[in-house]
């Protein structure tokens, strides 16, 4: 799991060698620790004329203790450049982006943040506005590739009427919680979201179920949700044994041994959840997943069936039964785990990519239905994450996966977990149907 | 413009060297020549139980002179594997894909074709079906990366009620016209489309305007639309001079010198089109585009303004005025030219990527409005295309762009032109709002 090259590149000697030879230069990413301030410097906040978000954003940042500058000063280093582009109604007005970003492109601190706020093209007043708003995506993705030094760059579309629901997302994106999330397009829907009493414990009082929790990304999800205040049920197959118990203990939660592909699994899970004192569950994270890689020419049917069964059919069945029984509470959160392979496809992974593209389909098709029940459903799509699984890859593939992204390094399980915790926050009530990649802005895509 | 490596790799000695050293192996792609048969071997056609397309597809392929096999035979080489997946209503039924593709994964001829037909997830009967249909994307993209040897792999979503409108797309995808199009998701809407009298001259009697036509991709578009029967107006800036005249002459069309960024350009173009005997135009291809690359930190405002102006604002103005004056005929076709950079973003191209993402926005936001006028609007998004522009790239970047795709080579201007000609076909009447990449399934994406 160790990225020895990154450790070397960040050593005294390594810095010199990397610079001289023009080698990949993976910065040390700023990751969140409880108690950290949101950002470690002032935030420059700009807006195109007529925008509807910068006022609200300025207020919430200031009340979060952030120093907000509304006009830039030469020589100042900013922790973030935030631009409200909702006032842009026409391609000619895109010039406001250039005017804001150009003078301060070199004024960001390391691991800085670029956030552009826009109106979802589908909610724009007409084609001219929709076109200009859609073009923001080209800007933010290019900036993510250009700025480097751990800078992340995102486009956040806020539906008209969603102005009061942006805080959880801004906090996530500004903080070290989103260290490995870049080049993403996030949609916040209309409506309001209640702020948690304590932004460092946003999940206080919530009960969370995490599948595949015994190791790797699942263990990090369990630990992170617990850190954020949730009571965690860590679920894994009976064979996971001690590892699962360890995770549950560390999270001060419960371990639940269950093979989700068993015919009666959903029924047993429903029974378990309805028997508890909570009578239901607030957060469901479908993390359990397997790979059985082979080219399709060499694949046997069991590899196909098991991957589809664990990664896709099991979450479908669990969702269907829990929802039918009313066991996901109002205000509930369901999160799926997709993958870059489900977006881009991958050689040797027809089964896995099919299952993970299906997870995206599950999220997108279920979101409108669950909205009526005040439940959100979203997915993360991890790129190259440092786990026991990726440590076993052949070195050529592993190094390519690690370096071919804007961070020149792999992500950590915690990065996936933080993104899930953001979806799970009470503040994310109007975020649904999103698929957010946790990939350091990998070059790979579709 | 020459890909010397590909020429070498396809030489007698080169084949041996490439195999021994495991070097990239760019196959010679099968490209269309008038009179070519659709495919050079039998097509294996399968279906999941309950599908609504394979009957129609079998009939149209047979009437196009294709030998269709409905069950595979060991040892036979197939030119294409076509699978109707519309009957798949649940993730467990995805097994039908494995059962169809696994035994014949090695039975495709070089430059073979994989086509999976599905139901658009948004038109599915419920979340289970939508999820399964969405997962088809993971399969087709993985197959594209896995099969190699010039195989292309696509997912074609056919809306319920669009069964009679699939022929132009199947012909495009099976033929050498789509040599460099792979890993794409195409949506065919409900409704019917009239077959052209002659599939080798589908644009007979149509008047087509091509901007930026003097060279490169624009010249290929003009030539290809003319080859397919259209009368072509080749437009470029006055400075293009002889090159433009040459293109127009070769296409037996007209040259029109006009700077589209001039304040009165749209007005002058409208005047030109309304004065002609045709009183309007049937096909408008917004190909004119420029790059002015710099990182945003080093960019001056004129680079920003000119790129947005030429690539995005000019097409918007032309569309708006031509549509307002009724100068795009009913049955008309508008095609924009986006770019991989507009999808993935690119270092040094904040201006270009913004403009090209905008072209995608233009297409997506205008399509529903134009549907009422029986006009379609779509975009191509080229990847690495061998042109004078890419020939000037530094060798490292150029070779990366050329090889990092499923074809291990760059595309040709004709590949972009063929895709535009398919959009322009009378048979593509229900295809609108699509963005199709012409990139050999580049690894780069979003």
TrEMBL record, chains A, B:
PANTHER family reported for this sequence: 3-OXOACYL-[ACYL-CARRIER-PROTEIN] REDUCTASE [NADH], SHORT-CHAIN DEHYDROGENASES/REDUCTASES FAMILY MEMBER
Tell me which SUPFAM superfamilies the record gives: NAD(P)-binding Rossmann-fold domains
> Its gene?
fabG_2
**PROSITE patterns under this entry?**
ADH_SHORT
Short name of one Pfam family: adh_short_C2
Query: Which residues are the signal sequence here?
Result: none
UniProt-recorded name of the protein: 3-oxoacyl-ACP reductase
Give the superkingdom in one word: Bacteria
Q: Where is the Ketoreductase domain?
A: 206-378
Q: Which family does it belong to?
A: Belongs to the short-chain dehydrogenases/reductases (SDR) family.
């Amino acid at each position: 799991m160790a990225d020895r090259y990154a450790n070397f590149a960040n050593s005294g000697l390594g810095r010199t060698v990397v610079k001289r030879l023009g080698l990949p230069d993976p910065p040390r990413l700023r990751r969140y620790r409880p108690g950290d301030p949101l950002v470690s410097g002032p935030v420059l906040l700009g807006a195109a004329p007529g925008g509807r978000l910068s006022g609200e954003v300025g207020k919430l940042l200031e009340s979060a203790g952030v120093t907000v500058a509304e006009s830039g000063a030469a020589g100042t280093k900013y922790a973030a450049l935030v631009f409200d582009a909702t006032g842009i109604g026409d391609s000619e007005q895109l010039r406001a982006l250039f005017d804001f970003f150009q003078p301060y492109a070199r004024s960001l601190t390391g691991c800085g943040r670029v956030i552009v706020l826009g109106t979802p093209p589908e909610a724009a007043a007409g084609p001219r506005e929709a076109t200009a708003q859609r073009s923001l995506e080209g800007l933010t993705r290019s900036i993510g590739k250009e700025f480097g030094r751990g800078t992340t760059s995102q486009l956040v579309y806020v539906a008209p009427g969603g102005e009061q629901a942006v805080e959880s997302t801004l906090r996530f994106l500004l903080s070290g919680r989103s260290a490995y999330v870049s080049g993403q397009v996030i949609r916040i829907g209309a409506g309001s979201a209640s702020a948690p009493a304590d932004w460092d414990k946003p999940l206080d009082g919530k009960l969370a179920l995490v599948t595949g929790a015994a190791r790797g990304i699942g263990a990090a999800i369990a630990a992170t949700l617990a850190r954020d205040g949730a009571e965690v049920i860590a679920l894994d197959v009976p064979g996971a044994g001690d590892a699962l118990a360890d995770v549950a203990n560390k999270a001060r939660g419960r371990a639940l041994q269950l093979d989700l592909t068993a015919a009666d699994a959903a029924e047993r899970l429903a029974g378990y959840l309805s028997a508890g004192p909570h009578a239901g569950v607030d957060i469901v994270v479908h993390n359990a997943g397997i790979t059985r890689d082979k080219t399709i020419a060499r694949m046997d049917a069991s590899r196909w069936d098991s991957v589809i069964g664990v990664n896709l059919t099991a979450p479908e069945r669990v969702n269907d039964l829990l929802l039918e029984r009313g066991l996901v509470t109002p205000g509930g959160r369901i999160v799926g785990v997709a993958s870059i392979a489900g977006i881009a496809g991958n050689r040797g992974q027809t089964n896995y990519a099919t299952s993970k593209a299906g997870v995206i389909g599950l999220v997108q098709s279920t979101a409108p239905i669950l909205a009526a029940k005040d439940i959100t459903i979203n997915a993360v799509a991890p790129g190259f994450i440092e786990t026991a699984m990726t440590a076993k890859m052949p070195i050529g593939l592993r190094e390519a996966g690690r370096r071919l992204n804007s961070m020149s390094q792999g992500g950590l399980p915690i990065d996936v977990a933080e993104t899930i915790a953001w979806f799970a926050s009470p503040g994310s009530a109007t975020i649904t149907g999103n698929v957010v990649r946790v990939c350091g802005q990998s070059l790979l895509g579709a």
